[in-house]
Amino acid sequence: MNTKNRALTLVSIFLLVGFVAVSALSYWSARQSLSEQVISEVVPLTGVSIYSKIKERLMAPIQISALMAQDTFVHDWVNEGELQPSRMQRYLAEIQQRNNAVTSFFVSDKTLNYYHPNGVLKQVDKSHPQDKWYFAVKQSKQDYVVNIDLDTRDLQSFTVFINYKVVDSDGQYLGAIGIGLSVDSVTQLLDENNPHQQFFIFFADKQGEVMLKGQNVIANPINHMSDITGLAQHQQALLSREKMVMQFNLNGQIAHINSRYIPELGWYLMIMHTEKPWDSRIVKPLLFNLLIGFSVSILVIAVVFYTLKRYQRELEKMAVTDKLTGVANRHGFEHIVKRMFANAKTKPVCSAILFDLDDFKQINDSYTHLAGDRVICDAVALVEDVYGRVDTLARWGGEEFILVLPNVNLPQALKIAEDIRQKFANSRSLFNQQSITFTASFGVVQQQPGEDLDRFLLRLDQALYQAKQSGKNVVYSQ
């Protein structure tokens, strides 16, 4: 058995034995892995998704209420003594109709009148429980307060009221104004983000009262966070931070809860997950893996060997190829030149052209670096047009290129260089509908008997230097 087959056999044995061992132990680690994935990835992403959808649905009524609070009509009407209440009535009716709102309102702090599109409904009274919302808004440090009014006929539907403070240009508090919009069921939104019912999702206010909740996967009714066994002692910590993830004991099971403060509502979004000892997401994959493990292992061995070999070739190609032009880079070209010099006995004639694009910095400065990249790529294409091949062309550095010409003597090399020079001078690069002219200077040498690579490249560089000193856009040889 040769070394390659021995290695393949050993890899196969280790893979199969390892697979069996890992499969036997995977259940115990899979539970922990699944739990960590749910807590670190699924739960946060679910929270972000729900938050973004809630924010999207509430931004419109919040912005409308903010514009109403800043409306100079409202400020002037109040400061003028609230004359002609019908004017405010028409204003609120127009806002309600224009924005398809359930209602719109304004409560004056001076008269305590509750203005509505249908007229003055009443005067708010601090002693009435149903009017406490107004005085809470007045005492709030926030610009607005969101109030949720559940429909007693259908607990799945609700109305969002945006109560926005009205403050005039002098900083005087004038009252509260806003609209009420009918929003699709939040519980439906919560359940849409919980298709497998693996979470219990709910909203809680700053006192821990459950305001809205998705499908209850917990046996006992939940109206307050303290109703969840084991959570009461952690309530204060969860409601004192903008974000928090914690673990607690729920009736002997490990439960995780992720909290996120929703400033637009003034509530906390809570996503709770309880670990199940025999989760089908663990058991089914385990049985499936055991069933197909051996056949998959064989395929994996073949794929691994094939993939490694292919990637190795790609990495080798990337190491010797210029990314912009697709020709060889300096590292790759050194291998080409060394092979040519090693074969000097069978291929005694070898010439090379080293050319550099003239005033290339000016092209970059005038037309941007992207335009400079276009010029470089066009130059390579023009070399291929003249010489017919670019497998011995390399980007030597920046805008400098070297073209090795095997079996080409100096006069022939000079002819090729001159043809390329003229091709450059008579061509244009197009970039963003701009025509860019460019030229290059060329140094040409032929390998001398017994000359090594370093000496050859030195003479080539000197020839290019002389071409530059001779006024550019010229061909110079040594």
TrEMBL record:
Domain of life: Bacteria
Enzyme class: transferase
One Pfam short name: dCache_1
EC number per UniProt: 2.7.7.65
Domain GGDEF: from-to ranges: 348-478
Annotated membrane topology: Multi-pass membrane protein
Keywords, sorted A to Z: Cell membrane, Membrane, Transmembrane, Transmembrane helix
GO cellular component terms attached to this protein's record: plasma membrane
Cofactor: Mg(2+)
Transmembrane segments: 286-308
InterPro entries registered for this protein in UniProt: dCache_1, Diguanylate_Cyclase, GGDEF_dom, Nucleotide_cyclase, Rev_trsase/Diguanyl_cyclase, Sensor-like_sf
GO BP term (any one): negative regulation of bacterial-type flagellum-dependent cell motility
Location within or outside the cell: Cell membrane
SMART domains, A to Z: GGDEF
Entry's Gene Ontology molecular function annotations: diguanylate cyclase activity
PANTHER family: DIGUANYLATE CYCLASE, REGULATORY COMPONENTS OF SENSORY TRANSDUCTION SYSTEM
Family annotation (NCBIfam families): GGDEF
The protein's name: diguanylate cyclase
Source species: Catenovulum agarivorans DS-2
